[in-house]
Automatic annotation (TrEMBL), chains A, B:
Membrane topology summary: Single-pass type II membrane protein
Protein name: LARGE xylosyl- and glucuronyltransferase 2
Region annotation (Disordered) ranges: 59-89
Organism: Pan troglodytes (Chimpanzee)
Major localization listed first in the record, in broad terms: Golgi
Needed cofactors: Mn(2+)
Keywords, sorted A to Z: Glycoprotein, Glycosyltransferase, Golgi apparatus, Manganese, Membrane, Metal-binding, Multifunctional enzyme, Signal, Signal-anchor, Transferase, Transmembrane, Transmembrane helix
Domain of life: Eukaryota
Function noted in UniProt: Bifunctional glycosyltransferase with both alpha-1,3-xylosyltransferase and beta-1,3-glucuronyltransferase activities involved in the maturation of alpha-dystroglycan (DAG1) by glycosylation leading to DAG1 binding to laminin G-like domain-containing extracellular proteins with high affinity and in a phosphorylated-O-mannosyl trisaccharide dependent manner. Elongates the glucuronyl-beta-1,4-xylose-beta disaccharide primer structure by adding repeating units [-3-Xylose-alpha-1,3-GlcA-beta-1-] to produce a heteropolysaccharide. Supports the maturation of DAG1 more effectively than LARGE1.
Length: 721, 721
């Protein structure tokens, strides 16, 4: 690089004079008053008019084109580099880095998690995420981060709704909607003491350590406040098509997918006034923003070029449809951030898209559990609950034959609630949500279940990160599933060898939004009429507040694959008599459903009360606030039985519904079952769990719990699941 | 860091004198003759006696301990750093980096792939891998790299067997066996023109770009030839237990899991002589090496300390049982290479093992397909076949409704043959291998299959990288599966939306090692006696060279889960008569097996010949060199039918065996099936495939192919798989 300090300094001085003059002419000194901090401390406000110190001539096209064509790191705004190469010094070891992201809705919440995974993979610093979210994203991300327990990551939430009035007056045509515009109000929305922040769009992926990006703050001159990468398309040149009228920008303008913000300086410079005035003025002649906040940032920068520090292009490699990014990445040995800034996202036409997609897929499918890794070098406050968890885990004895059970019980699974778009059901007093849990090998049940149950469902899925993506594609490819907005899918990420069946049920149960829930299992198909019939029965019987009852849905099973589902109780009874159907587990474990009294059910015209007995595990409809499942039962065995014991102990009436039924379909035994049923220690461990369950039961219910003791001391049938 | 150039130079000069003297006393000038290259070019050999220029005092304990305790980058051998920080300059852009790895057997082959994945993930340079392998590893890795098609990676293989005589005379107690010692002979085994190489153990994982490691060659003085990280345990201090007598080493010695070798200098310095003499001498008083090559490297270095350049500890963070590595990694912000150098590997006791395990699991489970990414910046020769593949893919029309089929057909799947330890069956003239393919959802069939088929099997598994690990654990946890060494599992890595059923069959078929194969499907269980019966029948009938025949194994099915498998044809016929069993697809698609003529089979006492008819798809036993399956049939449909057409076109006799049978067990339809059967374009695309198949058939068999035309023009039954 040629030495150019002297001529630039002269040129800058000349430009400064020119711009000061212009500034006075245009604004009469009203705007751009910056409070300078002599010696780094807040001093007496020293005000000078007009735009800040310009480092870039307003028409810098030629030089910017050179930056795109050649040296990927050097824009014309870069100050002279030292001989040590293009790397700025790393930020102080263990410095807390702040990142702000605006995120709204189900789909963006999934996107942001991929971004966060890529960031965490490479980071070596503690991070503080500032998330501006709508209610949907907040519910998802709060649960996710709470259960993710990543060390050295703090998360703060900000209400997007409260920021809406500040930007809703701006007409906007960009697909990001109102939320894109919210980046403009971050200087006032984020805490006043926060001086610097990296602002990211949800559609970027890191391919490097974010501290290298943070380190670029050190390149800012005393007056620069916004770090941006040049736009890698010709959009702002205004010659894409006839009558294409983009917002004003310096040359190609800047892309706002990745921003370094000196919040302190922006606040001092009167940023809020600044962008509003610019936007209002431009909107006199332009109908709306096309690219949301980016149009306004560019218009402000065109007026105040001294605000901007150009970042090396590798920090925002833009994969829009007609991107010029190749000029950047074909020279750079090191891509830092990839930006999927086409509405087509991964389906964008780009001859190298496979290359970039591989980066994205890496983190999309990456096991987020692996990011729960300490930063040894930077001791930090452990995430809430992490210390107790560590202690509990440390107390386990690896030689204990039930070690795997104990460990699995303590495992905190990462949970992504409402993984896919979901519309909560309208509030209806007797509505029922079907609650169940499944893993990948039962996905093919979902379509049939949707046909049998037209009402809301809350389903917990036990998946790896990669499987969650397969699941997403599965739903998108199924017209039956894609049409249903009332089915909420909650992904619980796999961890550990035992299936956490009751933890899954509790996740699905906690997310049910109707007053009643039907606690089912995924391999059962309910009678076509069951949803309507249950709502009618709930209304008639009055569950819940004034009657603590559990409505029993009698369970049947078929051993055949091809099977014509009965449309009525009459048809069902015919099949039962023909030997095509059986009562559930009739051959292996009749005790599980014996108290339902199938003989009485055949004749029954009205609901009838039955008594609890050992091993009873009917499928029931209960109020949403029913007792939770006991999460100590992991793997297979006693998980539902214990729940019914708890219902009985809490004096729920058990009422069998005369027209209700549900039918179990055959399936190959799951891997989890076959793995553990054959294990000789399995039953011993299950007995230990049952003993502990009974101790807790006695603690809560006193002598009343004695009733359950014999049931708890029976050996477990090996064939049960 | 204090300036210490002057005192060190003085100390080094004094030491040099001392060592020159010692060298003369010990070797009389025979050894350590180095050919120096004045001005970097090979000149007249300038010989000087004794060890090379020492940079480290022979007893450097104190200073080395300081290195372990403090600055993670700086060992006492480091030359002064510039002010630019600890990073050496990167190697010239696009420089080809050479890596040598010794790898033998099934388990090490799996390990080395994880290492290679981590290396490829971070690398930005073209790589040349030099793999010293036994026959097993070579077969695995050659197939793997050939099908992996990673751009800018070249692989050369070297025969470990040929190197054995050079090291087999050394008694060795280390778990790496003879292969560990082979690192010693790399200077002569690798091509003479190769000057520098990074040597890696199979149990290391990269957490950074290997070019940074390569760049450390620049730190070598003119005489240094071996770059090593200090040993992070007290082993070589010789005080671990009473009478603990390790091999001689400088202080803590060095770990040889990661080595930078200047092969040129070692060759010139007479390395081969050097290490042999040292080893022979030490073996006079020591019974064997305990740590294989590492003992010998350390003994040589103790004698010739000038050979060694100390590398920063982060380049070989050693997780042995009583490691001192924490002193290194707790200070370093950046770990570069993790070394699982305990025989316990991931189960090593280390309070931070979770942290390191997460790195390892990242690459263990990483989708290797994502590493097929170009190095834009460094244009390179594409891997063999890649260019044609790219062209073929580029010619596909994304708007073609059968685009997914076309793309899937062209997909080259990464293949890992004999994923688990496997003993080839002893050569027997009439032996039969059961050939089948499966994905994760059929894993639970394997145990039953092993009980039914006591002979060799060759099974292709269609899995993701993460599923391959689950599969590994599944086999390890099953006593039935773990006991079988004659079952070869070949992992074909998933890519694309359609199940490549015939490609999988061909992988399994190609790996069968017996003269005959039984072409089965995973959801069938053969009669218990079938393996013996087939071998006897093959002997009697004389398949293969003098009789081109396909032996038909009649197929049946049960629709019931719980089912008692018949032990004889008599029992089978009784179940058939009782309606518990049916002939296969009796209800949905009797044409598929009608030509088998079940009525005749009931009575048959001897094999009988049957004629091909449309849609016939029996399960057959054929010689191993039978026609391959047509890989164009992806997804479900016509995949077996086409194979039988090909057999018939090649004039194989179809002989039904009177005592043979196999029974299909029920299972839920796989996801792949349900996804595509419902698609309306699916049948159209299948018809297009059939048309193309027939064109090829006509091309090969001429007018004889006309016979099959009507069959190919029939619509496909929707219920078939």
């Amino acid at each position: 690089m040629l030495p150019r300090g002297r001529p630039r300094a002269l040129g800058a001085a000349a430009l400064l004079l020119l711009l000061l003059l212009l500034g006075f002419l245009l604004f009469g000194g009203d705007l751009g008053c910056e409070r300078r901090e002599p010696g780094g401390r807040a001093g007496a406000p020293g005000c000078f008019p007009g735009p800040l110190m310009p480092r870039v001539p307003p028409d810098g096209r030629l030089r910017r084109a050179a930056a795109l064509d050649g040296d990927p790191g050097a824009g014309p705004g870069d100050h002279n580099r030292s001989d040590c190469g293009p790397q700025p010094p790393p930020p102080p070891k263990c410095e807390l880095l702040h990142v702000a992201i605006v995120c709204a809705g189900h789909n963006s919440s999934r996107d942001v998690i991929t971004l966060v995974k890529s960031m965490l993979f490479y980071r070596k610093n503690p991070l503080h995420l500032h998330l501006v979210t709508d209610a949907v994203a907040r519910n998802i991300l709060e649960t996710l981060f709470h259960t993710w327990m990543v060390p050295a990551v703090r998360v703060s939430f900000y209400h997007a709704d409260q920021l809406k009035p500040q930007v809703s007056w701006i007409p906007n045509k960009h697909y990001s909607g109102l939320y894109g515009l919210m980046k403009l109000v971050l200087p006032s929305a984020l805490p006043a003491e926060l001086a610097r922040v990296i602002v990211l769009d949800t559609d970027v992926t890191f391919a490097s350590d974010i501290s290298e990006l943070w380190a670029l703050f050190a390149h800012f001159s005393d007056t620069q406040a916004i770090g941006l990468v040049e736009n890698q398309s010709d959009w702002y040149l205004g010659n894409l098509w006839k009558n294409h009228r983009p917002w004003p920008a310096l040359g190609r303008g800047f892309n706002t997918g990745v921003i370094l913000l000196r919040l302190d300086r922006l606040r001092q410079a009167g940023w809020e006034q600044m962008w509003r005035l610019t936007a209002r003025r431009e909107l006199l002649s332009l109908p709306a923003t096309s690219l949301a906040d980016q149009d306004i940032f560019n218009a402000v920068i065109k007026e105040h070029p001294g605000l901007v520090q150009r970042l090396p292009c590798v920090w925002n490699v833009q994969l829009s449809d007609h991107t010029l990014a190749e000029r950047c990445y074909s020279e750079a040995s090191d891509l830092k951030v990839i930006h999927w800034n086409s509405p087509k996202k991964l389906r964008v036409k780009n001859k190298h898209v496979e290359f970039f997609r591989n980066f994205y897929l890496t983190f999309l499918e990456y096991d987020g559990n692996l990011l729960r890794r300490e930063l040894f070098v930077c001791p930090s406050q452990p995430p809430p609950g992490a210390e107790q968890l560590q202690q509990a885990l440390a107390q386990l004895d690896e030689e204990d034959p039930c070690f795997e059970f104990r460990q699995q019980q303590l495992t905190v699974h990462r949970v992504h609630v409402t993984f896919l778009p979901h519309e909560p059901p309208p509030p209806r007093p007797h509505d029922v949500t079907l609650v169940a849990q499944l893993s990948m090998d039962r996905l093919q049940m979902l379509e049939a279940l949707c046909r049998h149950w037209p009402g809301p469902m809350s389903l917990a899925l036990y998946l790896t990160d990669a499987e969650a993506q397969q699941f997403l594609h599965f739903v998108e490819a199924s017209p039956v599933l894609a049409a249903r907005q009332d089915v909420a899918y909650h992904v619980v990420y796999r961890e550990g060898p035992l299936y956490p069946v009751n933890q899954l049920r509790n996740v699905a149960l906690a997310q049910a939004l109707t007053p009643y829930v039907f606690l089912s299992d995924i391999d059962f198909l309910p009678a076509y009429s069951l949803y309507d019939y249950l709502r009618a029965s709930i209304e008639q019987l009055g569950l819940g507040s004034w009657r603590k009852a559990a409505l029993v849905v009698p369970a049947f099973e078929t051993l055949r694959y091809r099977f014509s589902f009965p449309h009525s109780k009459v048809e069902l009874l015919a099949l039962l008599d023909a030997g095509t159907l059986y009562t559930f587990r009739y051959h292996e474990w009749p005790r599980g459903h014996a108290p339902t009294d199938y003989a009485r059910w055949r004749e029954a015209q009205a609901p009838y009360r039955v008594q609890w007995a050992a091993d009873y595990e009917p499928y029931v409809v209960v109020p949403r606030d029913c007792p939770r499942y006991d999460p100590r039962f992991v793997g297979f065995g006693w998980n539902k039985v214990a729940h019914i014991v708890e219902l009985d102990a809490q004096e729920y009436e058990l009422l069998v519904l005369p027209e209700a039924f549900t039918i179990h379909l055959p399936h190959a035994p799951s891997l989890d079952i076959s793995r553990f049923r054959s294990s000789p220690t399995y039953r011993d461990c299950l007995q230990a769990l049952k003993d502990e369950f009974h101790q807790d039961l006695s603690r809560h219910h006193g002598a009343a719990a004695l009733k359950y003791l014999p049931a708890l001391q029976q050996p477990q049938s090996p064939a049960r699941g």
